[in-house]
Amino acid sequence: MNYGYAHLNGEDNLVLQARDEADRHCIQLYHHVTAPVNILNKTVLEVGSGRGGGCSYLARYLKPKSIVGIDFSSNAVDMCNRLHSQPNLSFRIGNAMKIPFPNQSFDAVINVESSHCYQSMKDFISEVIRVLRPGGYFSWTDILWKHSTDAINQYFQKSGLQVIREWDITPSVLRALELDHDRKINRIKCLAPKFMHKMLYEFAAVKGTTVYKSLEDRKRVYLSKVFQKV
């Protein structure tokens, strides 16, 4: 359910199980944002876990001690708890501006293509800092309007979080959208009634849609950052 990530040199060599191969580019976005942080045997929170595939990948492949995904949608949380059965994985309802966990509960917090929907980026970042342990990591990636990037960067700068790495990954996201175009079109045609096709093409950002063109024209950019709580 994210726009995906593809290496520009074509070396998408992340080893995946056969059942995960269809979702390769979506998984690679999670791998990209999490790879700089070693979450082995760590306690991890994903804010905005959606349909849960990202949490499932991290739980199965990167072996955290525990990972919990929170999402505002109770339907999404119920579905995730039905579909994704892992001993180190769970999902619960939660608000990104009021994360339902005590102070210093997690070694790492992950947020993928979700924060642009939040009412207050400032409040979200404050909550991330609150639930992170000292030395913990915050891995974030999202699509933004180009004109809003200065304000978002200022929120991060004023937060006191230390920047570990940061990238503009727009070209890699566009490449993933290009590679996934036919698969998305075919799935939408197979699974959705015709009157919904145009809306779902836009939602999936297939080639030619407003979202795809805005990334292509760089009216929107896709940024990725990793921070540490010092």
Keywords for this structure?
230 residues; Rossmann fold; globular
Q: Based on the structure given, which CATH architecture is correct?
A: 3-Layer(aba) Sandwich
| Proportion of helical residues | 25-40%
H/E series: HEHEHEEHEHEHHHE
CATH topology group: Rossmann fold
Q: Helix segment count?
A: 8
Gap between N and C termini, in Å? 32 Å
Unreliably modeled segments:
none
For the record, the CATH class is: Alpha Beta
Sheet with the most strands, sense and barrel status: 7 strands, mixed
- What is the general shape? globular
The CATH fourth-level homologous superfamily:
Vaccinia Virus protein VP39
Number-wise, the strands total 7
Strand order of the largest sheet: 3-2-1-4-5-7-6
Textual characterization of the structure:
It is a single chain. By secondary structure, the chain is α/β, with parallel strands linked by helices. It has one domain (18-170, 219-228): 3-Layer(aba) Sandwich (Rossmann fold), CATH 3.40.50. 39% of the residues lie in helices and 23% in strands. The protein has helices spanning 24-34, 53-62, 74-83, 121-131, 149-159, 170-191, 197-204, 210-216, and strands spanning 43-47, 66-71, 89-93, 106-112, 132-145, 162-168, 220-228. The chain has a 7-stranded mixed beta sheet. Strand 4 (106-112), helix 4 and strand 5 form a beta-alpha-beta unit. It is globular, with a radius of gyration of 17 Å. It starts with 23 loop residues before the first helix and ends with a strand.
